[in-house]
Amino acid sequence: MTFIRSQNHKIVRWSWAVFLTFSISLMMPLGVAAAPYAAMVMDARTGEILHSRNADTRLHPASLTKMMMLYVTFEAVENNEISLDTKVLISKKAASEPPSKLGLKAGQRIALRYLIRASAIRSANDAATAIAEAISKSEAAFARRMNATAKALGMTRTTLKNAHGLTENGHLSTARDMTILGRRLFYDFPDYYNLFSRRSTHAGVRDVTNTNRKLLRAYSGADGIKTGYTRAAGFNLVASARRGNKRIIATMFGGRTAASRNARVAELLDMGFERAPKHAPVRKPDPPRYANTSGLKHKITRRSGQTTTSLVPLDRPFARSSGSTINDVISILASQEEAELQRKISEAISEINSPQRETDHPSAHEVASNESNPSAAIDSLLRPIFRPRNRASNQTGRAQFTEDRDRIGEGDTQLINAAEKRWGINIGRFNTRSQAERFLVSTSLAEIALFEDAERQTERSPLGFDANFRKLTRKNADRACRRLKARNIPCLVLDPL
């Protein structure tokens, strides 16, 4: 009897052990523990690989897919296929996508810009599907376009079946391909890239928080890019960070938890900063090489100035992390161009005895009255120029401009030139009007030749104060942006008023 009771007791204990093991396995996310690990670390400046592990293994990318969806979307906006202000109609398919989602309703209309924000920051599946249908009429057609784009970017082992990244047979990518895509987003669409660093934003129907906010908050220099999670994929992440002259991109597939994924990616980024040389030439990737894209009705170009306003606040020039203040910026820029400024003042003062002529600049008499006060002379030279509006400047379409040009006549070149000066540029968004105005003045000091005929305008927006130069020709606006970007000053061409 004692032996039988002992055996029964062992059987009961064994049964409880099996039951508990089975219960715990059910509580764990299916596939997370088994998701294969892969990683890659790249020096974003040169594209050099600093570390890789299983980097060419085809795995489930999860919501890293949205990086490609956004790349194609930015491309479509720049090619004028769709506008950021386009009201997208939400289909039943889009509205029925599983979480994570924005909560869109079938039949609802919402601006594309909000769908972009929801996809990039909240990883909303309904927003991703809605974007795909708006651009390519169907998600399947959009997936074909994403695959053609992937090949053009050199992502040789990526095949995508949907726009959001939910698990689907054959929907696969690699750590190498996603690292390439992360670098492409940074270099090919710099005007949109800062979207990925926002910890929260308004997405039309509600505010959304960034799924990557913990790493952005915890890791110094982190500014993107995208998280992903499904049971089949595990916890994935493509992260980018900048410290000093170095920018590192790290990709990881197959994390067991969000916390362990973030910790491992931080280690990969640290490894990248340690291995990357302090100084390295920036080698931007070549333009995408599109093969035969029959059936894909889109033209690939690289243009600036397609948006009338920035999708998100522009990076403030000379961020605080660099240790510079606005006063430092003004001092640096002014000293760099001091000789040019003195030449300009001398020329203006030399006009005192010259015959007065009709001009948009301060008169010689105004300059002479300030000769003993250099500061006042500078202010008069840099005072915004306000011109009366002509008929074309009150219109937004090119058709009206063409009609006015014909009515003016080919001989009246002065009025034609005035009508062409309808473009502008934005050089930053600031917390206060004073900061915006001071940076406009400092930029004028640094680039007098570019902005001597431009109007300086500080325009209030819901997110701050935009520092804009107006009354430029398209040619001068493009040239100004090239010059400013070469000096690491952000610049965005603004469409005609």
Task: Summarize the structure in words.
This protein is α+β, with helices and mostly antiparallel strands. The chain contains 19 helices and 13 strands. Strands 2-1-9-8-7 form a five-stranded antiparallel beta sheet, sandwiched between helices. It has a four-stranded antiparallel beta sheet with strand order 11-12-10-13, with helices on one face. Helix 5 (125-136) packs across helix 6. The radius of gyration is 28 Å and the shape is globular. The protein starts with a helix and ends with a strand.
Notable features of this structure?
497 residues, alpha+beta, 5-stranded antiparallel sheet, 4-stranded antiparallel sheet, 19 helices, 16% strand, globular, disordered N terminus
Class based on secondary structure composition and strand pairing: alpha+beta
Low-pLDDT stretches are 1-5, 20-33, 293-325, 351-416
Number of helices: 19
Strand content: 15-25%
**What is the number of E strands?**
13
Estimate the global geometry from the Cα principal axes. Answer: globular
Secondary structure blueprint with pairings:
Layout: H1 2-27, E1 38-43, E2 48-53, H2 65-78, E3 87-89, H3 92-95, E4 109-111, H4 112-122, H5 125-136, H6 139-152, H7 175-188, H8 190-193, E5 200-202, E6 207-209, H9 213-218, E7 222-230, E8 234-243, E9 246-255, H10 258-275, H11 326-336, H12 338-349, H13 364-369, H14 374-381, H15 398-408, H16 413-420, E10 423-430, H17 433-446, H18 448-451, E11 455-461, E12 464-472, H19 474-486, E13 492-494
Antiparallel strand pairs: 1-2, 1-9, 3-4, 5-6, 7-8, 8-9, 10-12, 10-13, 11-12
Helix pairs in contact: 2-5, 4-5, 5-6, 11-17
